[in-house]
Amino acid sequence: MKISAGALVLTLLLLSGCATTWVKVDDSGRNYRSEHYSVTLPTGWLRLESDNTLILSRDGILLQIISIQYRPHENTFEKIEKDSSVTMLPSELAQLTIAELKASQDDGLPSLEILSNTPVELAGHTGFDIHLRYKTDAGLRMDVEMRGVVDESGFYLLKYSAPTLHYFERDRQTYKTLTESLQL
Amino acid sequence: MRHVLLALAVLLLTACETTQIRPMQSQEDTSNLAAEEKRLWHSAEELDEQLEKADYLYGDAELQAYLETVMHKLYPEYAGAITVRVVDSPSLNAFALPNGSIYINTGMLSRLENEAQVATVLAHEGVHFTNKHSWKQRRSIKNSTAFATGFGMVTGIPGLGDLISLSSIYGYSKDLEREADAEGFLRLQAAGYDVSQAPVTFEFLLAEVEALDIDEPYFFSTHPALEERINNFNELVSQHGTTNGYKGTEAYRLHTNKLQLELLADYLELSQHESVLLILERQDAFLRYPPSAWYYLGEAYRLRNEEGDTERAVNAYQTAIQLSPEFAPSYRALGVYYMKNNNPLQADNYFIKYLELQPDATDRDYIEYYRASLKSQR
Amino acid sequence: MSPLRGLYLLLVFTLVLSGCATTPSAMVHTTIRQDPGSRPLQQIVLLPVDVDVYEMSAGGVKEEVPEWSSTAETNIRNALLVSKGSGGKCCVTRPVDTSSLTANEREILEEHLALFNTVATNAVWATLPYNAAWHFKAEHFDYTLGDGLGFLKEKYGLDAGLVITGEDVVSSSGRKTTAVLGAMFGIAIPLGHSMLIGGLVDFSTGDVLWMNHVISAAGQDDLRDPASCIELAKSLMKEYPGLSPAHGIGSGAGY
Prior knowledge:
The complex is a heterotrimer.
Chain A: H1 5-14, E1 23-24, E2 31-33, E3 38-40, E4 46-50, E5 53-57, E6 65-72, H2 90-103, E7 113-122, E8 125-135, E9 141-150, E10 154-163, H3 167-180
Antiparallel strand pairs in A: 1-4, 2-3, 4-5, 5-6, 6-10, 7-8, 8-9, 9-10
Chain B: H1 2-13, H2 35-53, H3 61-74, E1 83-87, E2 94-96, E3 101-105, H4 106-111, H5 115-130, H6 133-149, H7 163-169, H8 174-190, H9 197-212, H10 223-240, H11 249-269, H12 273-280, H13 285-288, H14 293-304, H15 309-323, H16 329-340, H17 344-357, H18 364-377
Parallel strand pairs in B: 1-3
Antiparallel strand pairs in B: 2-3
Helix pairs in contact in B: 1-6, 3-5, 5-8, 5-9, 8-10, 9-10, 11-14, 12-14, 14-15, 15-16, 16-17, 17-18
Chain C: H1 5-18, E1 27-28, H2 30-34, E2 43-46, E3 50-56, E4 62-64, H3 66-80, E5 92-95, H4 103-125, H5 136-139, H6 150-154, E6 160-171, H7 173-184, E7 193-202, E8 208-217, H8 226-236
Parallel strand pairs in C: 2-5, 2-6, 3-6
Antiparallel strand pairs in C: 1-8, 3-4, 6-7, 7-8
Helix pairs in contact in C: 1-4, 3-8
């Protein structure tokens, strides 16, 4: 996947303390509540809030990253210029999410492989659970799991990304536990 | 003011490098590279490796061999020096690296209609290699950046280290592109191809650019440049006369047919319904595409979702079932339609048929979930 | 483009922030900090050194010069190979012969090296000034690549691998002229840098036992020069856990 070195560095710098503040999650800070949802965060991880996105990592954002994003139904998928809606089927939502992911990369992610794509219960609604894999320019495999759901208000995307080697499976259950705690 | 003075001082005191570079004459010239050229080749080789490592390539040995045969017809004296590889990407792109590696996207291949058209593209790219355009362009950039440094413009020049950008996004200079068109045209003629297909290739792709309002990195650089090139080719055709040259429609279709449905699926995966409509709403579309393509047309209408599109989509799915009854996705599409329109019985029938035809469907879990919710409605 | 491009840019950023200082910043695995003898290593191999040397033109265009890169890699390799310690103890380093690996094993090794690059970039990111919340990752250094390289221990008897990558940007004469002229007009023109990144990976566990980087501004070091490489390597190998103080850098027989 072609992420320019410049874009990577900019992302890393923006996600360092220059721009915002990382906070360690302790027992008292586990219950996170935003305007649209609440979740239980894993202790010992660090969290960062940015726009409508909550970001979590344990060892650093290049080694594992969980993100929770809320998007209203209008212009939900900016790159492909599509809206979501509460009546959308989970398979349709999954299709648009994959399209948005591909469209967000200059090269369309030719190495992307969908490993599984199934319905899942999230916060009392039926959403999707996609597990995919792609390769970076250096030949490093990356696994991504995305769970998404809609309600009357908007679209919720919970994403987990980590290198396939060693890291992805190691914290996958932590991600799943977090998603199961989601309340809208 | 001090920037101006610095720029002038740099201009006077640092040597500008010549962009007068002698083209190659044959494969032997690839063994006599200047030091600066070797650096470019080294970067190109690294990029070749990277593209392979990152799974960018389409990986169809037969298709690659066919394209290399076409290349060999155009550049027989460079046998072994030029390789053609296919990139698995729906975008309309082709590029040549300085070391003779030529890449063409599946998106481009699926749009072209015959061998003469792909030969037009490959002939053009081949000239970028034989005439060392990467090197010329690099020298030109180095000269202009040396001057620009004086104005503090040391950064902000995109893609200098990116050979793909150099050759496709920003395009070569107009002069180099014209050179590639003119000399490529002569190669096309010498190889016995129907040269009237050269402007047709570009006209066809201009229609795509206009219809889809494409502004992303593109083989042909900018829209106005495309129109100019069509005019150039028409001039060349009238100067050199049309021939009864080889079109190679059947041979081309034999090797590229499977790309067509794959590309339609790729476009739908990217939610690019306009591209699908552009292809399948053409009058002669179903002369080229198999009957199952009616399903993709239906999906494109569904995604566009304008007034009347739902009805168009349903008609398209039904046509697909009529003409290609073993093609499973059409049944799924109708199942979803009837489910959304409160006809659980019809919906379930279509879902059952879909799973019968495609028992190992990757979305089986979704279909079973939909069937379970339909059951609870009945 | 080198896969470590992002890391190099981060390091150049830190160089700019630190005002051209060349302070090494070694990180040692937490288990070794607690007990230096806890990771006995006999056979350490030097994995293929990956150093790119670029020439920067008057206008700032960078081009890799493959011959210079090859020279730099040879210089670094020679600077790092040390002679056998007394009693056969660590630190014995020899270059690994990747041609003896199967194609599948080579692919596994390459992917793990790509992971090392990601770990290294992450490790540097976590030490950035203004990233205080992540500084604990340097204080409690426990990165790993996982146990996927265990075959190197089981099949080939190798305990650990030294990973060395680097980059040198050498200014052309035109660039240097531009910089001199710039200085006359009060305009700063960047001239390049030299940098090395090193890491020691335990093949059985995948733990990164040690990591360090050195970076210097243009003119201070030159990876094409063997003497300069020895000095830079000495700086890099500070706090390297496998280094026998009696032998040091550059005293070895090479290969």
